[in-house]
Protein 1
Amino acid sequence: MQDPMLEPLTGVQNSNTGNKGSLKHTPPALARLERLRGVRASYQRATQKQNGKGWLANVPWITWIVTLVTCGLWCITAYQVALHAGAQSWRDVLASVFSNSENGDVLLAFGAKYNPAIIQGQYWRLVTPIFLHANILHLGLNMLNFFILGPIVERIFGHIRFALIYLLTGIASALASFVFAPQEISVGASGAIFGLVGAYSIFILAHRLAFRHGGITALAWLILVIGLNLALGFVIPNVDNYAHVGGLLSGCLLGWFFTPFYRVTIQDGQPVLADAHSLKRRWPLALLTIVLTVLIAIIAIHFVGG
């Protein structure tokens, strides 16, 4: 699946071609032309790499799994919220759901980010909030954004890198909320979704020469989307913008480390395009990233908990 907003160049024009069709390149112009071709080849390989690998490779199954788990947990918590509100029948349950009822005690029981509990050793609360939502509106907005962006990013980054980025940026967003909004009880996938936006932005930035106008239009569109969502966080009550910013910044960082970028290498005497940032090549960096996330969490918990 390719984002129609980000249509790449269909060709590279030679600005040094004279009226008589002569090709006279200065060394800088030739280097730039080669760079354009290399970036365009990388973009095409990254967006089309699953073609011909079977239907399973083309299915964004991590996106589906995350969506099903998230929606399943919401069904359980929504039912519990309705019971706490005194629901006696399925009609009462549905009325509670569609009235956007929520209950902080239920969310706490299922693993919401709650600083006192984390400080006391319930460290899983830095992970579980990614899959919890307060009400049907909260769930619907997040899953809509996730299902629009998720398949695109998963196709480009691959299943494992996609899962790694989603989980680590979700944890980073919870840590940001833990440090900067210690009084808030926080749930939601929006921090991890902002992480995907950050990683996707780095992919576009790395391949900006493959887009019309040097990628300015594509990057401006993403900046607008990010800015509008952050601005809404200042207007709508109970929105944790610290989590959003934490997810976005960590997504940009992970995108810088792991965004697919293909270069020509020689294998068995033949030139092939190989991903310089694949996990096969950068697995030590992936492990280091996980270890650093754990260390940052330990430091944050010690700092906030005193």
Protein 2
Amino acid sequence: MGDKRSHIIQDIPEGKEADAEIFQFIGIRLEKEIYGIEVNKVKEVAKPFQITPIPGTPSHIMGLMNLHGEILCVVDLKVLLAMGTAGSTENSKIIVVKTAEGPVGVFCDEVIDIFDIMKKDLEIPLSTLSSAMGEYIKAQAQTRCGLMGILDIEKLLYKQEK
């Protein structure tokens, strides 16, 4: 099957120089788990202001939020990952993710840090992940805060549309 790491992040040249390539991920916490989102997909990190619920929307849509005059749809990642529902705390943040459909707000319990991960340190996700979860975790990496699952954020955000 070849090296699955080469499929994790596309358009990366092969060879020793490629393994030394560094990728940046913003580490977020959902419950006690750490997940990473590629920094180049993140527009900004914001505090959750007033989120206005929208009646009749799927359970993973928390509502709309006005951020600097731009109306964002805010998504609960915990619902999408079958981890329950989000509860707002003083550490909660909204990660504004750039998608093909425009920016989307992603609610998380906390932003931990930005992690620099070398390509050679990206591993295939654990085979023990549920098939539902494994579909949206495209890699994993060991960090000083523990094991971080790298999210395929666009695939996760648009899974309901299939």
Protein 3
Amino acid sequence: MIGNDIVDLRLAKTQSNWQRSGFLEKQFTKEEQVEIKQSENAFLTVWLLWSMKEAAYKCVVQKQQKRFFNPKKFQCFLTGTKRGTVVFGTERYQTKSSISKDSIHTIATKENRGEVTSEFFVVDKQSFQSNITNNKLLSFFGENVALLKNAVGVPYLYKNNTKLAVSFSTSHHGSYGGFAILHEDEFKKRTFQTLRKLRESTFTNC
């Protein structure tokens, strides 16, 4: 399983006041609140931890097939400026974040299983964030591949009405979109690389 989350930091500054009364207490554990208050850049730490929680949450939803809202059940531990661990019950998810002055993109996987392919990009038309992000993902898998969500809202890929055994996650916020794909074994990795080469070859010959 894999999850990813994006935070447009410029938008976060205007959308949410993390310093308002009760915000930190509602979203973060006591240990995380200490981490935030002791950090050199509290604003960045808030949204880094939030993106870690959201990325891990997407993994849990895929597994449990149930949506819920309880950010404090996801305990974040930073192991570096861009790496961390999120603990949910007895499960642990490893995270890796890409951080710039304007954005955060975090990817979470279960115990570093498999290799990850990801893309992060600017979304020019924010009103079409979801469509643009999904189309970017689908372009990696060639023709006749569709993205459909089940009753819980978990997305899956289908080719010719057959569900593909691919673990992936999409995300978008503000001016950015992105996705991540997990290659849990060498066969799946080679299959994906072949699909990608075919796609690139098709575009080159057009």
